[in-house]
Amino acid sequence: MNLEVTGKLIVKSPAQQVSDKFKKREFVIELTEEINGNSYTNFAKMQLVQNKCDIIDRFNEGDMIKVNFNIKGNKWEKDGKVNYITNLDAWRIEAAGAVSAGMSNAQAQGYGNTQQAPASNSFYNPSPENADDLPF
C-alpha cells in the first residue's frame, strides 16, 4: 500500500542499530490541513529502515518534504496477551518543491492537500464545501 503525505520535517533522529540485522531511523513531520476555516495540526512519527536510513540526510529540520510510505503492522503475544504495533515505513523522501507543478503553493505545503494515493482517500473526509465531483 503506497501512501503519501507532505509536511514540515520537525525531528530527525540518528539511526539506531536495533539488532545485528536490523537498523532504523525515526523522524517526525508536522501535517497541517484546513477544514472549514479551521487549521488542524498533527505530528506523524515515521521510520526509515535498513539501507533507506540515509535518505533523510539531505533534509534539515524545518524543510517541507513529501514522503512516500507504507503502513506496516506486527502482532505478537506475550504472557497470554496479544499486542499490536503499527509503523509508517518511509521509502522515498523528496523536497516539497518537487511536487507537481500544477499544485498551488498551499497544496505543496500540505495545507488542504487531498492529492494522496488512492488507498488513502478513505482517511480523508472533506466537508461538502471542500469536496469536488471529479472522479480522480
Provide the fold topology.
Elements: E1 3-12, E2 16-19, E3 22-35, E4 38-49, E5 64-78, E6 81-95, H1 105-108
Antiparallel strand pairs: 1-3, 1-5, 2-3, 3-4, 5-6
Summarize the entry for a quick read.
With 136 residues, the chain is mostly beta strands. Helix content is 3%, strand content 51%.
Overall residue-averaged pLDDT value: 79
Q: So, the CATH homologous superfamily?
A: Nucleic acid-binding proteins
Mass-distribution shape: globular
Q: Give the count of helical stretches.
A: 1
* Number of self-contained structural domains: 1
The fraction of residues in strands falls at over 45%
SSE arrangement, N to C: EEEEEEH
Structure description:
The protein has 136 residues and is an all-beta fold. It has a single domain (3-103), classed as OB fold (Dihydrolipoamide Acetyltransferase, E2P) (Beta Barrel), CATH 2.40.50.140. It contains one helix and six strands. It has one helix at 105-108, and strands spanning 3-12, 16-19, 22-35, 38-49, 64-78, 81-95. Strands 1, 2, 3, 4, 5 and 6 form a six-stranded antiparallel beta sheet that branches. The model is unreliable at 99-134 (pLDDT under 50).
What are the main properties of this structure?
single chain, globular, 1 helix, OB fold (Dihydrolipoamide Acetyltransferase, E2P), 6-stranded antiparallel sheet, disordered C terminus, 136 residues, mainly beta
